[in-house]
Structures are given as C-alpha cells and as structure tokens.
Amino acid sequence: MPAYTLQVPTEDNLVISGAVARRLLSAGDGDAALLYLALLQRKGGAAPEELQKDLGWPADRLQRAEGVLLSVGLLGRPAVPAELEPPARERPEYTRDDVTTILERDDRFAGLTAEVDKKLGKKLNTSDLQILVGLYDYVGLPAEVIFLLVCHCAERITAAYGPGRRPTLRQIEKEGYRWAKLGLLDLDRASAYLKQYAARQGQIPRLMELLGLGDRRPSPSEERYLLNWLEMGFPPETIELAYDKTVLKCRELKWSYLNGILRHWHEKNLHTLQEVQSEEAPKGQTGGGQDGDLSWMKQYL
C-alpha cells in the first residue's frame, strides 16, 4: 500500500513546532487540532464567535475543544472581561435580610446552599451564607461552579489533613476569587480546570521523589512551586534537569534557584528536555549542554 504524500501549498504557510505537534497528537482529539489551526490562522487570538463562524461549530463543541487545548498547555486562559473581574475591594456586606431575600427569590441559590450544607456536614450560619451570596451575586460565579469549587476545596483539605477536616467558607471564598481571575466562570471551563488539576496532582509524588524529598506530602509552599511548574508545561524530566543544575550550583535544593531556572526556560518557550538541551548545547553538539553564564539567575534570587 503506497504511503500518503502531504500536498503542502507554498503560499501563506502555517508552521507549528515539533513540540506543539507532539502535544496535539498526545491529546488524540481532532476538534482540538482543528481549533488550534483556526487560532493559528487568526494569528493566535480570536473571539469565540469568530471561531464558531470559522469552524461552523456550536458553542458547546468549541468549549469542549478549548478544554482539551487547555489540558495540554496549548491555550492560554482567556482574559476576564473587566465587568466580571472581581474588584480589589472586599465584597459588600450583605445583611441577614439580603441573604433571606436572595434565598426566597432564587431557587438555584437556595438549592446550592442545601447542597453545600450536606457537603460540609454542617448547617451554614449567616456569616457563611453571606460569603456564598458574595461569590454568587457579587463575583458572579454560577451556582454549579460554586458547588464544584466547594467540592474541590473539601477534597484538598481532606487530602492535606485527613478525613473529617472541612474547609472554612473563608478558604472557599479565597479560592473562588482566584477562579474568577482565571476565567472559570462557567461549568465547562471549571470542569476543564479541575481535570487539569487532577492530572497535575497525579504527577506530584513523582516530582517529590526526583527532587529527593521521598514519599511525604509537599508543604503548601512546595506544592505551589510544583503545580506552577506543571502549569507552565514542564514535564518531570525537564524539572529533574533543572534540579540537577541547582544542586551542582548550590550543593542543595534551593527552591527559588530551581524556580528561576524553569522560569527562564519558560520565558524562552523551552519546555521539553530536547528543547532545553538543543538550546543550551554548544555549537556543533545536539545534547547535554553546559551551565554557561548563569548571571541571569540574579533576578530570581
């Protein structure tokens, strides 16, 4: 059977890197690949309505493909419209009457509070309800997104401190503001984020081991570093290379130094081990690399 031959027009070519091609192939999703090509055709950015027109897709199909591209690190999170960006100031002080009014007029919010009661194993008091009203009425998170948020916070606290521990509403509120800033303002985006989060959590034990920290749970600060590196798009083998360079230079693990190396690579769009080694190899070589001049590290220390 003859092999396929790709017919490539010479005019107005679109070029993707090998790293991007590998990520698209690993996703195994045709819609995600088509969406990436549509974005590339539009020079990397377009409104959802424009993409729907280009591809002939309904909104739900576009959102699902967006979620896949997010999960493999090929799509930046959309900017949050100014009117939806949570203001820097604190939420307004909702009175008991305000809470009662919203509970009486909005069945979705009333249903949410009942489910949160069950999830947290307690009856929400007025202060708790004021926080939920703030997320719902002031920040603008839909009821279904808030419930996902509560479940996410509960799972994190249980994982960190064991069964029986529950998050406070203040902790949930803080994470809710972060979700809003990330643009997780609908169920599809929130679900895609949680899928990404679960995948990254699954990689943390391996990262702890390769950093020589054994099988213990990371501290909150350590976890923030690890998740941030994974969110940047670094696979474990690249993080291990940065760790090796850190230990050679500092004689021990220094989180800020290791983080500086990875941030530097990220700024240069180098993420895979092959990309880093090709960039850092001396002329005439294709791997290994040298430490070279690390004076650029001073800005991170």
Describe the secondary-structure layout.
Elements: H1 18-27, H2 30-41, H3 48-55, H4 59-71, H5 96-105, H6 107-120, H7 126-139, H8 143-161, H9 169-182, H10 187-210, H11 220-232, H12 236-250, H13 255-267, H14 273-280
- Provide the number of structural domains: 3
Structural class: mainly alpha
Number of helices: 14
In N-to-C order, the SSE pattern is HHHHHHHHHHHHHH
Strand segment count: 0
The chain-level mean pLDDT equals 81
Report the uncertain regions.
Answer: 78-88, 284-292
Cα radius of gyration in angstroms: 23 Å
* Strand-residue proportion: under 5%
How helix-rich are the residues, as a percent range? 55-70%
Q: Largest sheet at a glance?
A: none
Shape: flat
N-end to C-end Cα span:
59 Å
